[in-house]
Amino acid sequence: MTVTDRPGAAATARARPTLAVWKFASCDGCQLTLLNCEDELLRLAGAVEIAYFPEATRAVVEGPYDVSLVEGSITTPEELERIQHVRAVSGRLITIGACATAGGIQALRNFGDVAEFRSIVYAHPEYLSTLSRSTPISAHVSVDFELRGCPVNKHQLLEVLAASIQDRKPRIPSHSVCVECKRRGNVCVTVAHGTPCLGPVTQAGCGALCPSFDRGCYGCFGPQDTPNTASIAHQLSELGMSEPEVVRIFRTFNAASEPFRRESERHETGPAPSAEGEDA
Amino acid sequence: MVETRLIDVTGLQSLLDALVARGYRVLGPTVRGGAVVNAEITEVADLPRGWGDDQEPGRYRLRPRDDEALFGFAAGAQSAKPVFFPTDELLWRGRRTAGGSGFEAQSAESAQAAQGGGVEEHGEDGPDTRPTALLGVRSCDLSAVGIHDTVLTGRGFTDAHYAQRREGAFVIAVACSDPGGTCFCVSMGTGPRPEQGRGAPFDLSLTELLAPEHRFVVEVGSERGGALLDEIGATAAARGDLAAADAVTEQAAQRMGRRLDTDGIRDLLYASIDSPRWDDVASRCLACTNCTMVCPTCFCTTVEDVSDLSGESAERHRVWDSCFTADFSYIHGGTVRESTRSRYRQWMTHKLASWHDQFGSSGCVGCGRCVTWCPAGIDITEEAAALRGVPGSNLPTPTSPPTPASE
Ligand code: SF4
Ligand code: SF4
Ligand code: SF4
Ligand code: SF4
C-alpha cells in the first residue's frame, strides 16, 4: 500500500468538509454528546469546518454542507417542511439518537389521542400546531446513516464522523448489548440477580452501560438486527414483570421502532390500539 | 508415578506468596457482582470462602455453604478463556510518519496498553508484563484450554499472542467437590477431577478436604510445581488423605446436574439438519451470543480496523465474535445465516459434530456455562436429547423454559 504525500496545512484547511448540526423534536442530549467530546472536540474542529451548529456557535457558514447531523423527530408541520430543506442542503445526512432514528420518547403519542390530551393539558390548544404522531427522519427523507442511542455514544459518534470524513464504512455493529456486556466481563444481571434486562434484544453501542452498574438494559439503542422480542417478553414475565410493565419497557426511548411497538401491543389488555408505524 | 503432597490453608497462603514473589500475577476465583469470577488475588481471604452456587438453565445464584470450603462451587461465570484469549486484542497500531509521506507500524507488544479480557480492570498505566498464575482451574476448563492449545497453536499457524501467554502461565487446577446443576463433565469425559494428560497440563492440582481438618491433597504436575511445594515445605500426603480425595471425586461424579448421551452424537447431529427442533429452539433463542461468549472453547473473532478523526493513526483489533450475530456470516450480497434457526444449528452442530472432524475432539467439555448463562435458559443437553427423540432426559428445572411462540 502506498501512502501519498500529505498536502500542507492550507490545502488541508481547504479540504475540510463542512459540518452542520440540526435539531428537531428532541432534548438536545445528542448534541450535548458532541459538545462533551472534550479532547476530541478540538481534533474534530481541525478535521471539519463546523459551519452550522446553533447549540454551540452563532457563526453560520452558508450551505450546502458536506455532512449534516440531524437530532430529533418530526412532530410538527413546520418540521415536515424544514427536514426537506435540510436534506436539500446536505451531502451526507446522518441521523443521531432515538428521536431521529425511531421517533423518541415523544412517539408515545402514537399510542394515544393527541387531540384529546392536547385539550386537557393546554388552556389554548388552538395555539398548538402539532402532528398526531412522532416519526423518525427516515420516514420523510432519505438518510445515509442512522446512529442509535438515547443519547448517542460519544465514541460511536466520533467513529461515524471519522468514517464520513475518510469516506469509509462506519464500524457500528448491529448485534446485541450482550456482546459488549460479556466482552466487558460483566456478570449477567438477568441470570445472576433476576433483574429484567432488554440487552438480548437491544443493539450494542453503549458499552453495556446499565448492566455494568447492575441495572437491566432499558433498550435505549433500539432493537438489534435479529430481535426475538417474544422470547424476551416471556423471560420478563418469568422474572415477575406484569403485562403493563412489559408494555412499558418496550415503550420507552424507541417505542415506535417496529419490533418494540409490535411486542408492546401484544401485551396490551383491552382493545387493540391504533399506533401503526409510518410504513402502515 | 503420581507425586502427591499435603498442604493446609496456611500452606495455600504460602503458595500464593511464593507465586507473587516469583513475579506472577495470580488470578483466581473471587466473589464479585453476585457470582464467582476470576480476578487478581493475593490472599486466601480473596477466595470465595463458604460460598457455593445454584445453577440451572438461565439462572445462577451464590449459595452460602455451612462449611468453610474455599472451592465449594462449580464452574464460575468465566472460564480461563479470557485470560489467555482476551476479548479485545490489539494486533498493531500505526501512524503516519512526521513528514506525512509514509506510514509506520508498531507491533502489538509495544502498543498494548489497556487490554480488556473480562478478568479485571487493567491499569491505564501500561501493559502488565507479569506472567499469569491461574488458580482454581476446573477439570472441564483444563480440557477447554487443551482444545484452545490445539486450535490456536497446534495447527498451520500459531497464534503468537496466545502462545506467549500460555507459555509463561502457571496452572493450579482444582478438583470439583460440588458440581453445579448444569455440569455434565462426566458425560464428556472431562472431569470432575483434573487428570494429567487429559486437556492442558497443570503444574499443581488441588483436592480440597474439609474434615477432620481443612487441607488440600496436591498432585504435582510439573517440576516447577514440585519445586514450589518444596519451597513452602509441603509434606507428603498420607494414604488416608489420598483415599479421602478419591472419595471427593467419586461422590462429585455421582452428582452431575446434567448428562449428555454422546453415543453417535456426531452422526445424530449431521442427520438432524432438517429437524423441526431447530424451529422450536429458534423460537426461544434470543440470538444474543451469551452462550458463545461464556463457552470456554468458542474461539471465533473478528478483526476491526479503527482510525482516528485526523486519519493520522490507525489500530487493528481482534475482538470476540459469535456465530449468533447476523454480521458473522455476512459476505458480499448479504448474511448467509439469516435465521436464528440456522445460527443455533450451526453452533450446536459445530460443538458436538463437526468439531470432531475439524479438531479430533468434541467442542463441548460439559462445563454447563452455555446452559446457565443463556438468558432464555436453552439447554444444549436438552436440545441434544430432543434431537434423539428422548424428551426430558434431564432433571426437571424450576424455571420452565419459554413455550415456543405459536406464530
Ligand atoms: S446483563 Fe443484560 S446485556 Fe448483559 S449479558 Fe445479561 S442479558 Fe445481556
Ligand atoms: S457448549 Fe456449553 S457446556 Fe459445552 S463447553 Fe461450551 S459452554 Fe460448556
Ligand atoms: S463440569 Fe465437571 S469439572 Fe467442570 S465445574 Fe462442573 S463438575 Fe467441575
Ligand atoms: S442459545 Fe441462549 S445464550 Fe445462546 S444466543 Fe440463544 S438465547 Fe442467547
TrEMBL record, chain A:
Listed A to Z, the keywords are: Oxidoreductase
* Disordered, as annotated region: 258-280
Q: Which intervals hold domain NADH:ubiquinone oxidoreductase-like 20kDa subunit? A: 27-163
Matches recorded under Gene3D superfamilies: NADH:ubiquinone oxidoreductase-like, 20kDa subunit (3.40.50.700)
Record field: compositional bias (Basic and acidic residues): 259-269
What InterPro entries has UniProt attached to this entry? Hydrogenase_assoc-protein (IPR051349), NADH_UbQ_OxRdtase-like_20kDa (IPR006137), NiFe_Hase_small_N_sf (IPR037024)
A molecular-function term among this protein's GO annotations = oxidoreductase activity
UniProt cross-references to SUPFAM superfamilies, sorted A to Z: HydA/Nqo6-like (SSF56770)
State what protein this is by name.
Coenzyme F420-reducing hydrogenase, gamma subunit
TrEMBL record, chain B:
Q: Per the record's keyword annotation, is Hydrolase included, yes or no?
A: no
| Pfam families linked | Fer4_22
Q: Where is this region: Disordered?
A: 99-132
Instruction: Report whether Zinc shows up as a keyword of the record.
Output: no
Q: Could you tell me what this protein is called?
A: 4Fe-4S dicluster containing protein
Q: What is the lineage of its organism?
A: Bacteria, Bacillati, Actinomycetota, Actinomycetes, Micrococcales
Q: Where is the composition biased (Basic and acidic residues)?
A: 119-128
Per its record, what are the GO molecular function terms? iron-sulfur cluster binding; metal ion binding
